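Much of what follows relies on a compact textual record of a protein's fold. A complete example follows; check for yourself that the lines match position by position.
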Amino acid sequence: MKKLLQILTLAILIVACKNEPKENSAVIETDTSTSLSNQKEAITTSIYPEAITKVFDAHGGIDQWNKMKSLAFTMEKPNGKEVTKTNLQTRAELIDTPKYTQGFDGETLWIKEKAGSEYNGKPMFYKGLMMYFYAMPFIVGDDGIIYEEAEPLTFEGKTYPSILISYEAGIGESPDDEYIIYYDSETGQMQWLAYTVTFGKDGKSNEFKFIRYNNWQTVNGLVVPKSVDWYTYENNQPIEKRNTVEFTDVMISEKFPDTSIFEKPEDAKVIE
């Protein structure tokens, strides 16, 4: 009888262990090819809220995005083609235009003027800007981001649920910036982005600008913009299309870009 009780107790413990909830985490392998050993290490991805996960999944999945090491795209500007190349792991960036080249090697930001042209832009503000807009929605999978539900957007009779994205203190150049992703409730695909601009200012802004994302293409398993439309806005609502920015020669790769392209040339100006 004593032996039977011991067996029953053991069976109950085994069932209890099987039913114990496990930590809800996903493990992926990350290529550490930058080291000489070229080994792989397992990392645990953070757990995202259900809404933003639905959006990520509609665009190919955050795990697929995290495999990528480089991004490049071209935009046609009034002065010619603007080519952006980015190391997605270090966020080193090269922006090449007919009149100037802007580079960031991960520490130093620099400008090289071409053909006697004088650069009058705002390199600190423009660094990473178009890459950030292009890499939506995956770019809001970065560390230090806070997700909240926001008011839905209704435009031309259709209502889009939303996710408010803000940042923990000290994250990025403008931690007071806020973004709102509006997505299709059925497909999860991103449809609008509202964003504030706080660079060079103190505190948050209550004025949201609007970009419409409704033209997509698939590159290396990821659904990314083919073009986006900037809209005029009033009272934090989009009104009508203002202009369209198209993206060509898009490249998203699991290979790291050549680091030498981000290095400051001797005749370039360092931006403090």
